[in-house]
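To close the section, here is one more complete example, presented without commentary so you can practise reading it yourself. The ligand is pyridoxal-5'-phosphate.
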Amino acid sequence: MRTPDHPLLIIPGPVEVRQEVLEAQTEWMIGHRSKEFVALFERLQHKLQQAFLTGGRVYILGASGSGFWEAGSRNCIREGKKALHLVSGAFSERWATVSRANGKEVDTIELEWGEAFATQMVADALQKERYDAVCMIHNETSTGIINPVREIGEVVKGYPETLFLVDVVSSFLGAELRVDEWGIDMALTSSQKALGLPPGIAFAAVSERVLARAEEVPNRGYYFDLLVLEKSAKKNNTPTTPPISLMFAGDMQLDAILEEGVENRWARHLSLRDQTIEWALSRGFGLFAPEGSRSPTVTAIANDREIDVEAMAAFMRGEGYAMDRGYGKLRGKTFRIAHMGDMQAETLEGVLASLDKFLAQGES
Ligand code: PLP
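Output:
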């Protein structure tokens, strides 16, 4: 909610959280070994399966999304085997770093930031070498690129030893995602993006194949050991104390999401993206992402007009909005408009109208 004390978050996470969802966190605490908790876990499980479009299990963990990177790397890559990481942006770079930090052998296909992966690149790499896993980011939040996960999944399906691990942190519930149909073995996400929750809880839809692989991997640690999570999940529980308040919020938010309809939610995000693109192009900006790879949840606007993005962000703060100024090495060269979560067209209109006021200032 935009108030004099609180700027509305237009940054790509954490996103704005609806007040009633925030308030759901203030429910009285319950013990995680109680019947009430088991019922809460079971309800969430059922709703998450509908959200991920999977018939399999979805783990719930007190962590940010990076925790499940660690879990994917630790559980799915055997000693003496390798993972193939598709790297093109800050988050894909970091996941490869996480795999290496866990002592795993990693090969990469590296593209310039702002490029999307083509299916053929993965097909060629898998023909040359055997991999235990292909690890990729569905939606590169740093560059505003969406990658062709469905098509790459078709290629990976041809290699029974290769698990397909996909970071859906900034695509889940904002872009089309069909975990079972697309052959994804692990789809991992945080809560603070298009799901529209506060940060601190992470979710991962995980296949039987992943669990079978984990059996073959020693030294999986404890907190991110998927076999430990599985044992508890079977009893509708978690091995360690979970973020119960966030689960209350998730329970409410997933009801609202399922009522909106997952496909309608994807369509709303696409329409917000198009509204943003139309604004940017008509105001003389470019777009960082090439056509066909433009993210439904975040648009990276190429700063072709060379506006002062620090001044823009300061102006927008005065208008009641918290704005991004570009990620990492793209800071200033791009700025991102996040259009994800529960954002509606009218809200985005307000943001764009304020940006217009800023631009008009520069012209006067
Ligand atoms: N993956 C992507 C695509 C992200 O955008 C982010 C964070 O913005 C992460 C992973 C890391 O997620 P977290 O900060 O929840 O650990």
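Once you have examined the tokens, check your reading against these statements. The pocket of pyridoxal-5'-phosphate is lined by residues 13, 64-66, 91, 137, 141, 167, 169-170, 190 (CB under 6 Å). The CA atoms of residues 9 and 15 lie 6 Å apart.
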